Amino acid sequence: MTLSVKRSISEISSLPDTGTIVPQIPTHRLYKRIRRNACKSNGTLTSILAYVNMLEDTTSNEALQILLKITDSMHFDESEFPDAIRKLVEHFQREPESAVRVKILSLFADLAAETGIDGQQLIDEVIKLLKVEKSAKVISQGLIVLEKIGKSFSPSVAYINQMVFFAKVKLFSPSHNVQRHAILLLGVFVLVSDAEKESLELIGKYTDSPDARVRAQAFRSMLTLGERGVQLPPSLYPRACTSLTDDYECVRREALNMVFELGVRHPEEMIKVQDSEQEVRLIDDAFGKVCSAICDLSMNIRTLAAELLGGMTMVSDEFLHQTLDKKLMSNMRKKRSLHERSAAHFASGEWSSGKKWADDAPKEVISADSVSLMASGACGALVQGLEDEFLEVRTASVNSMCKLALKNSVFAVTSLDFLVDMFNDEIEEVRLRAIYSLTAISRHIILREDQLETMLSSLEDYSVEVREGLHLMLGACKVSTKACLTLVVQKVLDVLLKYPEDRLSTFGCMQRVGQKHPEICMSITPQLLQDHPFFDSAERDVEDPAYVCVLIMLFNAAQHLPAMLSLFPETTIKHYAYLRDTMPNFVPRLAVGGDTKELNLIGSTGSRQFLETLLSNIQRAYSAPQARQALLKAAQDDLDRLAEIDPAFSGTANFTSVFFGAQLQMEQLQLAATGHSIKAPVKECLLQLIKKCLMLQNLFSNLTIDDQLLVKQMCLRASALNLVLIVKDRSQSALGPCQLLLHIASDTSSFLQENTLLIADTFTSAILTKLASVGDPKPGRVYREILPIVQTAAPVVIPQINTNIKMCKARIIEPTESSYSADNVIKVTAGLIAAVPFVAELENLQQSQRQDLRLKIKYPDQNVHIIVPRKRDLKKVMTEQGESESQWRLRTKVLLSHGVWTEASTVEITICLSVKPNNELELCKPVKVHFAPKPVKRGL
After folding, report:
1. DSSP, res 141
2. Element (H, E) at 144
């Protein structure tokens, strides 16, 4: 890490006045004590010059060990860098061993990447050293170092041209390794204007190099130039096609990428077919070449080819459909008229002898292989990929087939049977990909009865993810006939009887089936409800999951076809009222008795107007402390209720509620800092304030920079109050709170410097100014400096309304308190383990927070166990549109174990985020399960 150089306060005050200057809190102060103690314990030196001076009068092995030590400890004073670089260069020039010279060059790259050293000086020194170097190994390392140094900062055009010129000179080296790294350097740094003129052609010549690594690097560098904006000309296409048959896998891989890139960039370019005068589009020919690569001997090449096919969506329909047929289409061969065949026969000078019947019949003198517009390997390419022995190739083929089908509805219908066949694959991941692919293209297809039988046979799969995926797919697809829908309903209900834990997934499936097939549902309503036209049927149990599934499907169909309501018996209407109250997310509102109007709160109107009124009332009462605190307490309850009523506005309401709660705690603690007594214990208030600050920092996303500044200022106030109250209490060390305050202040200062348009409040400005003026930030001195600021701090500014805020929260689906109630106790022998299935859904969990997810188990004796779930147990929720961006599902097993209990007691299980050591933020209310460890039964 780059360490900031100490600057005196006089230097800061002498800077030119460019507006509001944010005092800078040097970050190295936080770690000064830790580094000093570490240096004392292991006896290492902290000066780079001390290391470099040890290189004098040493052997090559000793010098190598010293250079390794410099690499291991990268925290140095930047003022010593110029002298250290000069001495390292001098040692490089007199060092006879090439390995040591390589290590010196590698050290230059490490210094450029991890410290604030001048990169331009390093470039000059490295190029100067390499100009007189003879060892190919050292020159190769030097080219790598130049690339790393150039990436560590933004060099000027002059230095870029200097590196490019040096790389072009080294292209003529006899060493293949030097050539490869020179080409790499050209691809990364050559200017776009120069590349289009001459550098691209220069690099292209090395695709014919005798060394495979140089050939592969030439293609890779050209692709890098294309990513940087260089126009890759179609003239590179024949060269790339020739390299597709190279003996080395690395060359074929890069050539395949080049063929794909040229096909996508120039789809309408016309090129001639080999050994023919016929012309085809470049994208079509490239598609055929990529299809041929699926028959490659290397699994990696076959996987890459299968992946690339999905990106070539502009290919012609005849080429696209050919990938699903292993027989070459007749119209893919060149055909000549009778006149052309006769003219060719006349030109050959051959005449019939009359000895053989029909020997003068016109014949095609061109073989089929030579005139085919598509290579034979392209025929049935996707089928070949689906039948490959490696799951990577099969998975990539399924994904590409899905991408191509999304762009072509006719191809989607053709590929349906092949995707359905993949439901029987032996690998679960392949089956899942086929299911999700079929779900994605469901809008283009209608399922037949023979296809449904294959799909529904997979519903009894042992994997819960496969079953849920099939539920999602069945809900997304449409069926053709009444018999098909009856088959689906019957099979889904049979599987539900076998796997009752799939209840919620089945409910969602039947809900979507009813919404997509209202007419067919109406035709089978009497059959499903077992309603006789003349006799009254017995009332069915509304708690029966199978009956509930049927009702959910019919009610959702009746929403789109109100005429169905006349077919419902009276008992079904009563059951509708019950189900509408118990599961409103599955049962829609229907025009059945009573008022059918529904109150809808929209975040942009009603909820926003309510929040604006609430904030304006608090703002008007800001000058009266008692009235403000009373309004803040009442506002918390109102905001919590608003978050429950309006889900679209819940993130904003929860953020504002937590912010107001932290403000109330802070005002109470501010009274304690001035010497007044408060009702609640100070330690308890501090813990609650820290928890709310952590919630503001970690549970909310989509914050604006103004919101982020408010959160940072709130945390700065909380850390200052924490230090003041701990020093006043004198019962614990204040070193940790002091370092925490300095860290938060440094972070706030950096944030304000990055966002110069933001203005900090008076408290933050005063705290940062005081901390910047403290030379040796010991807890006592920091306390004396900030105490008057903390005691006289003004109230916190009220946050602005931001409707985009999302809150991370969870919902535990299994276990439920009813499933493990007092009548259904988990019994296990004391000391052994009981595995409880655990399923939960998480919303708005950030990708960076996945590793912080924890399961918290609290036993009745107040013992708390924190469990880290496996990464593979947390996956994104699949929807009809693909993977959800913000929803995750955690499916795992919670292991419970304890000593002997006299009777069953409740164990609390919840999900939390571990944001700091011993600080977990709960994402939902804990679920309670009854657990009873029994004593070991002794034998007679």
Report:
1. H
2. helix 136-152
Which carries the bigger pLDDT value, residue 319 or residue 822?
A: 319
Q: Which ranges constitute the DSSP H helices of 266-372? A: 282-292, 299-309, 317-322, 338-347, 368-371
Structural domains for the chain: 48-245 (1.25.10.10), 483-590 (no CATH), 604-792 (no CATH), 808-934 (2.60.40.10)
| 380-384, 630-634, 677-681, 929-933: least confidently modelled range | 677-681
Amino acid at 520: I
User: CA dihedral defined by 465, 470, 471, 476, rounded to 10 degrees?
Assistant: 130
Residue-wise burial string across 126-135, b where 16 or more C-beta atoms lie within 10 A, e elsewhere: bbebbeebeb
Cα–Cα dist 265/259, whole Å: 10
One DSSP character per residue, 173-237 reads: -S-HHHHHHHHHHHHHHS-HHHIIIIIHHHHHHGGG-SSHHHHHHHHHHHHHHHHTT----GGGH
- The two beta strands, 864-867 and 853-858, are antiparallel
Structural tokens at position 274: 């080999």
Residue-wise pLDDT tens digits, 494-506:
999 999 888 989 9
- Among the ranges 9-18, 631-640, 664-673, 862-871, which has the highest mean pLDDT value? 862-871
Choice between 303 and 599, residue whose per-residue pLDDT is larger: 303
**Residues 441, 405: Cα–Cα separation, whole Å:** 7
Task: Print the SS3 string covering 736-782.
Answer: HHHHHHHHHHHHHHHHHHHCCCCCCCHHHHHHHHHHHHCCCCCHHHH
CA 772/CA 29 separation, integer angstroms: 11
For residue 901, the tally of other CB atoms under 10 A from its CB is: 16
For the segment 428-474, what is each residue's pLDDT rounded down to a tens digit? 999 999 999 999 999 888 888 888 888 888 888 888 899 999 999 99
**Cβ–Cβ under 8 Å, residues 181 and 145:** no
User: SS3 for 9-59, per residue?
Assistant: HHHHHCCCCCCCCCCCCCHHHCCHHHHHHHHHHHCCCCCHHHHHHCCCCCC
Token pair for residue 126? 């490295």
Mention every residue, 6+ apart, whose C-beta is less than 8 A from residue 933. 828, 829, 830, 831, 897, 898, 899, 900, 901
818, with CB counted inside 10 A (0-12, 13-18, 19+), is exposed
Distance CA 602, CA 646 (A): 7
Tell me which H or E stretch contains 811. Answer: strand 809-814
